[in-house]
Structure formats: C-alpha cells, structure tokens
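Running this now, will post back.
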Amino acid sequence: MIRVPDSTPTPGAPAGLTTGKAPFIERAQADGQLYIHQPYELYSEANHATWRALLGRMTDRWARYANPRFLQGLDILQLDWQRIPRLEDINRFMAPRTGFRAKPVSGYVPAYRFFACLKNREFPTTITIRDGATLDYLPEPDIFHDVAGHVPMHTDPAFADALVRFGQCAERAAELAREISDPAERTRRLTSMIKGMARFFWFTVEFGLMRGVKAGEIKVYGSGLLSSYGELAHSVESPEVQRYPIQLEWVINQAFEIDHYQPLLFIIDSFEHLFDLVGELEEWMIAGKLNNLAPGEPVVSDDDLRSFLEESAREVATVS
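Update: finished.
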C-alpha cells in the first residue's frame, strides 16, 4: 500500500504550500514519496492570492502572444481565476479529450520516469506555488508554471501525441544503452542521448515558438515562455532574440542556460510538425547521430543515468 503523507499542518510550521517552505512536501521527500496527492486544504489565502496575481497579469499577454491552441486549452480547462485549481477538476476536463492527466509530484522527477509518464499520458505536476514576493522568476517549476504553462496544451490531440512519442523516444534510448556491453561507453553514449533529448525538449516544449496564421507572425507555445510575464513579450518582440526555423542538428547541439532570458529560439510550423520532429529525433538516435553531441549544458546527473538504466530494466523484467 502507498502511504499518503500526512496533510495535517505541523504545529508552529508555516502554513500553506509555498515552494521551498512546505512541510508536507518535505515529509513526502523524506519518506521517498515522489507521486503524491494534492492536499488542497493546505493552500493558504496567500497562496491563492499569488495565483490570482500570476494569472491576472497574464491575460492580456496570452491574448496577444500565445498560440490559438493554448487559448482554446484555457477555455476547455475552465481554470478558476480566483483560487488555485484542483488537479482532479483539471483532469475531468482534459482526460476525455486526449487521455492526459496531471499527476502530482513532490519534486524533481528523474529523467526516465518523467518521460515514462509522458508515454503513459501523465504529466508530472508540481503542487506548490512560488512566494508572492517573487512572481517573476523561480528556478524550479511550480503549479503556475505546470498548470497555466503546460497543461492547456495537453488538451490538443496533436500536441499530446507528440509528448507520448517523446516518451517512446526515451524508451528507445534506454533500449539502445542496454545493448552496449562496455560500461564506460554505455555511460558516455547514454549521457549524450539524454543531453540531446533534454535540449530538444527545452527548445520545443519549454521555449518553443510557432508560425502564426499571418505572414511573418510568431506565436508562443513553449510553457517556459507562456508562464513568464516578462519573457513572453521579449521572446516575440525583442531584437536581442535570434529566432530561426527549427533544424534538428542545431537544437540537439545547442547548450542552454536557465537563469536568464533565452537569446536563441526555434520556430515550428505546427504541432503536427512537432510530432514529426520527435520521430526524426528517434530515427537519428537509432542511427547513432546522438552519440557524440556538442558538450555543454544541460548537465546529466547520475540520478538521470540510473533512471534510464534501472527503471527501464525493471519495465522489461515486469513485461517478461
């Protein structure tokens, strides 16, 4: 039986589910619980006020810069603009359309487990919300980034299918790694493949641009942009940003940094185009074209490497 973390506030502990200050999350992590429930009763009025502030200031910018399918997703989800949404309510609207569900987690999800969730039409979703004093930047995901940035796109069948295909691509990377007998070479190649997938995900799902209907028009679909009040406008309008039609060889060899506005972004034609690109990424992986990528960010952690080798091996053993 999975033990659910106690949602009773600890005496003397700060109330709420504020990122970095939530005893409920600390207990879950200490107990090794990655997949949790959303203890809705723990959200404080300050948490709800932060949600209102974040969502309220994005309305006009989404109308101006977001791609139409994101705006349709907002309408479908019927997000509560006054209070942090319940994930069960979001799933009630989303699952019948694409099969995707928001899956609450206690924190960082190792790479393979994250991709495996996508393959199974689950999106690991953070339940804490940033402190109201730091609306503009947070170095880690929160519920605003995950729900208001990512989830509306999960109502679109073509985008949802691209995420599933991406999860399947990660599964293929694990299969290829298990075929390599030399441990050092296995680690080297797998590190390069994971780096390539992480870069692709960053420059598409997190920071992707899309062609608009009008000639020369650019719209945003990347969740990192859609959840950022400042960078959303900057990504489309600033002359400091280089914007290029996406080319797979550029994306997988391009390092990125997370602590400043992105100076280089890539443009896709449609979510169907994105789906095809993920297929091309897998073909390149099988052909060995992801085995020797350019060095640089992101760093692939030991936990990520272990997740690809150990989690995928457990999956194979379970099927067998």
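The domain at 23-319 is CATH 1.10.800.10 (Phenylalanine Hydroxylase). More later if anyone needs it.
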